[in-house]
Design goal:
This protein has seven helices and eleven strands. The protein is α/β, with parallel strands linked by helices and 228 residues long. The structure holds cytidine-5'-monophosphate.
């Protein structure tokens, strides 16, 4: 069975505050997008990559692919309004009947090959996998007025990262069901699988190097953490 990685790079990077989306910002001489693609391009267990990119940056994305002669990218697609829409576009473009699918945020450029391998190997046993990291901060549940409602036991809470891995049929079904559902608040693909109770979701341990680049300071931090 093929393993296909979908890389989501269609964000506008509003919170980042630059003219260009954050995936096109360079760290150590390469764009965040190139770092993310190369983690999968260079991984022996990944067969194919589908890149979902910002509609305004399709040409730039293609230029980057050509320049680097990436071999595994089979499709460059336009993303949608939300991450969920971009993910939907990637999943629905898969022609195979069966496949293992990894969905990854381009904004996590330093995912290491062990995490990718652990996700793929876990697919032998589970149909949905979430990379996650322990929460060093206590989480507080609040209401709309900023009043604390609940302070849960930290040891039962983790921070979700990507890649998230799925049996193709399960993630397709989740996105099909989500098309007709209203008011979904999920921010990732495991959230959808969980909402429709389609599979038990297994955790693969992530790490701090795999944190998402959201604000300019995250670039500085990524540079430091990478050297540790
Ligand atoms: O916005 P956020 O940082 O949560 O985005 C996570 C990932 O999803 C990023 O890599 C971003 O490029 C991608 N994304 C997307 N399409 C959107 C919004 C975000 O592919 N409409």
């Amino acid at each position: 069975m093929k393993t296909i990685a979908i890389i989501l790079a269609s964000g506008s990077g509003e919170r980042f505050g630059l003219d260009v989306p954050k995936q096109f910002v360079k760290i150590e001489g390469k764009t965040i997008l190139e770092h993310a693609i190369e983690a999968f391009e260079n991984h022996k267990l990944v067969d194919e990559i589908i890149l979902v990119t910002n509609p305004d940056y399709i040409d730039l994305s293609k230029e980057i692919i050509l320049k680097n002669s990436y071999k595994k990218i089979t499709k460059v697609l336009k993303g949608g309004k939300t991450r969920k829409d971009s993910s939907y576009n990637g999943i629905m473009a898969i022609n195979e009947k069966e496949a293992g699918v990894l969905i990854h945020d381009a904004a996590r450029p330093f995912v290491d090959s062990q995490i990718i391998e652990n996700c793929i190997l876990a697919l032998d046993k589970y149909k949905a996998i979430c990379t996650a990291i322990e929460s060093v901060d206590t989480l507080v549940e609040i209401d709309e007025n900023n009043i604390v409602q609940n302070i849960p036991n930290r040891k039962f809470y983790m921070r979700a990262q990507t890649p998230q891995a799925f049996d193709l049929k399960i993630i397709k079904k989740a996105h099909e069901l989500a098309q007709n559902a209203k008011d979904l608040t999920f921010t990732d693909d495991c959230g959808l699988v969980n909402q429709f109770a389609l599979a038990k979701i297994f955790i693969v341990k992530g790490n701090e190097k795999n944190n998402k680049i959201t604000y300019p300071i995250d670039i500085e931090v990524a540079g430091i953490v990478r050297k540790i």
